[in-house]
Design brief:
The protein is an alpha+beta fold. The C terminus is likely disordered.
Length: about 80
Amino acid sequence: MENIKTLTKFRVPIGNQAIELQEFVFQGGGMPMLRTRIREGSRFTIFDIDPVTAAQWGKALSDWAAVQPGMDGKTGGAE
């Protein structure tokens, strides 16, 4: 059995996928993992990643989002 804690849930505005991020630890102990659950209609994609991979992935997502138009805090986007 595992100990699972939901960290966040949200929907993607385009495509309407439901995304849920969960922390889980096996009852026997070990490294906490991040479970990503993506629901598209009746189909689920679930994968588990370690903290190092989560940090790399999170940084790549943040870096990409930071340079997109409208993410600089100005109404007109980055110039």
